[in-house]
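Bumping with the actual sequence this time:
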Amino acid sequence: MSERDDSARDSLIRELAFDASKSGYHINPDEGFIRELAFGLLTNEERFGYRSCPCRLASGIEEEDRDIICPCDYRDRDLDEHGACYCALYVSEDVAEGRKTLSPVPERRHLEEKEPSTPPAPSRSLAYPVWRCKVCGYLAAREEPPGVCPICKAKKDRFERFM
């Protein structure tokens, strides 16, 4: 790897750490592991034009891979349930602080897809409940409220069911 490549990887790691912290997340504290993931993200960006998850097989068609562009669509639920995302780039505070060890995270991609069928009749119900941060008003549509509000960093207990 060239000095220029090392610089790009270091810059990406700083960017990932900054983005994680402002969203209430952490990046994996294993520096060697993170350097390899960053290399994979940069390789995929060069190859495809976008940073698809280096731990998943990308098609090279951005529209098809939108769900695995880092941070992937599955990150929040993986962190809530397992303490890390699928590739273990993002980890919970407990993992980052060494209070919890990493364990395998099952692949969610394609498991949630269903065979094409007749579209359901229009409904007023939502697929997920909506949670509102009582501190800043941030809304999240998901099964459980986020562990930390990505806007104001309020903890999970500061969310209320909104809808």
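The tokens above came from a reply further down the thread. The domain at 3-96 is CATH 3.90.460.10 (Ferredoxin Thioredoxin Reductase).
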